[in-house]
Amino acid sequence: MTKLREFAKVEFSLKHGNLKTMKVLHTICFNNEGYSTGRRKDLLNFDGFGFDKDSELYAAKLNGIKSIDLPDLFAVCHVLDLNYIGDSEEVDERILRFLNDCKIDKDLNVDEEQEEDVDNPSNDKEDERRKEVKRRNKIQINDEEDVEDEEDFERKDDERGSFGRRRRSEPFALTFKDVEDSIKCYDGKSKENTQFKNGLMILKKSLI
Question: Which of 47, 115, 142, 183 is 20 to 30 A from 53 via CA?
Fold first, then answer.
């Protein structure tokens, strides 16, 4: 099957695209956001689900896509070079159809006529939604240096993990051995012993 890296526009978008969108797309493809060190590589090598369109797996994946916010799906369409005109159900189905087969379909991809439709909304009801599509379409793709800086920060955050949080102090336990070792043994020859004996003699004389 064809890999996403084999589509020129898609390959460029996957290499340079917005980090949040990469996480959303990775969640769709692999059911998790992935790790900073391999997320884009995973997506570039993705070659489709290969589900039967009447199968439960296809239906389950479609339900998963429906749970994603529409603006994020617009961004995914932009990365995959897909047509995002229509209602949310059409957008959901379009994304899944492309990711399922990983092949170009004229009904899925953006063409010039559809882009003109975005600039000329046909009715007021869809005007607000189309404005959002235009806004998403005009988002500037991060240059490679910005993307690397962002992912480098995320990678360091992943590596730091729990060490970045305040560590709970360990409980302190004092054993009898610790106390025993800290007490100086009495040997009867120390300076303190001589002073003690002298004190006893003075006390004895004072009592006679």
Answer: 115
Taking each helix axis from N to C terminus, what angle separates 19-30 and 56-66, rounded to the nearest 10 degrees? 160
Q: What is the pLDDT of residues 137-150, one digit of tens each?
A: 554 444 444 555 56
Q: What is the pTM of this model?
A: 0.60
Reported as a single tens digit per residue, the pLDDT across 17-62 is 999 999 999 999 999 999 988 999 999 999 999 999 999 999 999 9
Residue 26: CB atoms within 10 A of its CB come to 20
d(CA 139, CA 18): 9
Separation between Cα atoms, residue 61 and residue 90, nearest integer Å? 15
CA separation for the pair 173, 196 (Å, rounded): 35
Q: Which of 25, 10, 17, 19 minimizes the C-alpha distance to 151?
A: 19
